[in-house]
């Protein structure tokens, strides 16, 4: 991994940035790392903050425990994205879970997390975890029907590489991959304008053939939204 | 409310404090308010930070939605403490809820929140909310059996005025006040050393006469812990 601290000029609004850190251009999208006096190490993908060392737990807990506590005894969990490992760390706290699959599209996110965020990447150490590097949309299409109790989509914004994770075909794949009574939970946006589109997309799936068989929840935590879709019990 | 900014000397570690704000001594305990360049307005009770304007939502959402989403269609909710109104704000997002009682021991917390944290205190505006100023322990003792679907304990540390909220008699009152299948969720500590005592106290209640009728969850979010006790379904 090359250190190229001088290659990227950070916006002036990053007033607490401590100079001397690195940036690196992934083959997929710009990956930045910087050190903030307030939030510790910060990971930026495609210009959007994804992870800050000092407050990451609030996000990881909300996106993980809310769905897993809303169903009894989850056993098989799939994480789409989440390459920093934080969601894995939280999923592994559930003793009922027997198998945790994760499909992350960018291996560099995993590598950066393991190198700079060891308390987050510790999630990969759980023996129940299997890491798949690849496209989450394709991965889900190949999943046999009714495989998972929970699917957690811990992605970047619904633009660029993650766009398909917020469109109808993907949500249909999720519904198929879930067992009856299973739950999906998704990080949805860092810009409020994305929220409506994502809600509408899920809503179209829900209002399709099997109305009343899903539930949607919407939360505002920092600048993200979460949704739960529960397939029929 | 008198402005006495010069009356309290803040610790040097509060390096981001913007001078000129006020402190006020409540009849019950020291209540401080200060303005931080990073976290906005900050409320301190008894020397412990209770609320920061910029990140309060993460705490309020976790302590509220986790229990309310873990049971179907909660209708009657009791909040013990929570005088800033933030938990009320989140509870009110649940359309199934018909009645929200809150019992806060210190009216000054409510007044300070309404004056300085209007986006938090907005929770009091919901017509389903009834505010009771008084001792939560005594309030719960007088509650008829099986009244509430959920009891959320949003208190300060298990020392001083809040100590009784973490002891066996209180948890027994909670269990009695809950309907079968109801849930309790509690903020537990700001110092890790408190956590074990609280867990043990809940555990003693759970392991009492009716083992397997409770579930305990433990989360680390910032410096707090949450527990859920589910009475038999």
TrEMBL record, chains A, B:
The active site is at residue 154. Pfam families: Spermine_synt_N (PF17284), Spermine_synth (PF01564). Pathway: Amine and polyamine biosynthesis; spermidine biosynthesis; spermidine from putrescine: step 1/1. Residues 1-233 form the PABS domain. One of its GO terms (cellular component) is cytosol. One of its GO terms (molecular function) is spermidine synthase activity. It comes from the Eukaryota. This is spermidine synthase. Its EC number is 2.5.1.16.
């Amino acid at each position: 991994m090359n250190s190229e601290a001088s290659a990227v000029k950070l916006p002036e609004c990053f007033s607490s940035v401590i100079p001397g850190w690195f940036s690196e251009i992934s083959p997929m999208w710009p990956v930045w790392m910087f050190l903030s006096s307030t939030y510790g190490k910060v990971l930026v993908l495609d210009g959007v903050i994804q992870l800050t060392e000092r407050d990451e737990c609030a996000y990881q807990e909300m996106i993980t425990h809310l769905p897993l506590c809303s169903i009894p005894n989850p056993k098989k969990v799939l994480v789409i994205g989440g390459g920093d490992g934080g969601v894995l760390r939280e999923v592994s706290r559930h003793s009922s879970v027997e198998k945790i699959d994760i499909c992350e599209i960018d291996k560099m996110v995993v590598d950066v997390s393991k190198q700079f965020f060891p308390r987050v990447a510790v999630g990969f150490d759980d023996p129940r975890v299997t890491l798949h590097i690849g496209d989450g949309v394709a991965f889900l299409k190949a999943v046999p029907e009714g495989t998972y109790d929970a699917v957690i989509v811990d992605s970047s914004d619904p633009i660029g590489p993650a766009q398909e994770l917020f469109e109808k075909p993907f949500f249909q794949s999720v519904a198929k991959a879930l067992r009856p009574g299973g739950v999906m939970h998704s990080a949805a946006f860092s810009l409020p304008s994305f929220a409506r589109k994502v809600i509408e997309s899920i809503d179209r799936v829900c209002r399709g053939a099997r109305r009343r068989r899903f539930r949607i929840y919407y939360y505002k935590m920092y600048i993200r939204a979460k949704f739960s879709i529960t397939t029929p019990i």
